[in-house]
Write a structure and sequence with these properties.
seven-stranded mixed beta sheet; Acyl_CoA_acyltransferase; 7 strands; Aminopeptidase; single chain; Bact_Acetyltransf; 169 residues; alpha+beta
Length: 169
């Protein structure tokens, strides 16, 4: 099956929530749990991405949202060249088909076109999420640090976060 990438629109809220919930339900999906994907959360990320950031969705041939990525410009002048608070979610049925990579490439292109242009994109990934770390490194992100015990799982165990950054050329 093929897919395409387009900018997020306000009416994408319900399908984006579905993709985020499905991704959150799988190990190594996203940091939020399915019950944390609330209407308020989805409204916030859509609003922030549309206001001063990037929001993109991957849609299949029928127009169904199968993936989403968003990041926002840091609202401090000193850091206004940075996109942060990045989240990418790909529906489990679409993982391994290049959707995540395509969303990132489209995000990089959109970031370069912003005024003023974005120079740096940053994200965090769980240290135990080897697949995500490999993808991010393949895309050009570099490991910049480790945040010890940043995440806490429902069973009480901790996981470090890996801080990563990418400089856009």
């Amino acid at each position: 099956m093929s897919f395409s990438i387009r900018p997020t629109r306000s009416y994408d809220a319900i399908p984006i929530a579905a993709v985020h919930r499905a991704t959150a339900a799988m190990p190594g999906g996203i940091a939020r749990r399915p019950e944390e994907i609330t209407d308020a959360y989805i409204d916030r990320i859509l609003h922030e991405a549309l206001a001063d950031g990037v929001g993109l969705v991957a849609v299949d041939a029928a127009g169904t949202v199968v993936g989403e990525i968003h990041a926002v410009r840091i609202p401090v002048k000193l850091f206004s060249h940075v996109l942060s608070d990045l989240t990418v979610a790909v529906h489990p049925d679409w993982r391994g088909r290049g959707v995540g990579s395509a969303l990132f490439q489209a995000l990089f292109a959109a970031a370069r076109a912003m005024d003023p242009p974005i120079v740096r994109v940053e994200l965090n990934a769980g240290a135990g999420n080897a697949g995500a770390l490999r993808l991010y490194e393949r895309l050009g992100f570099r490991i910049e640090g480790r945040l010890e015990k940043r995440g806490r799982f429902p069973d009480g165990t901790f996981e470090d976060d890996i801080a990563m950054g990418l400089i856009l050329d």
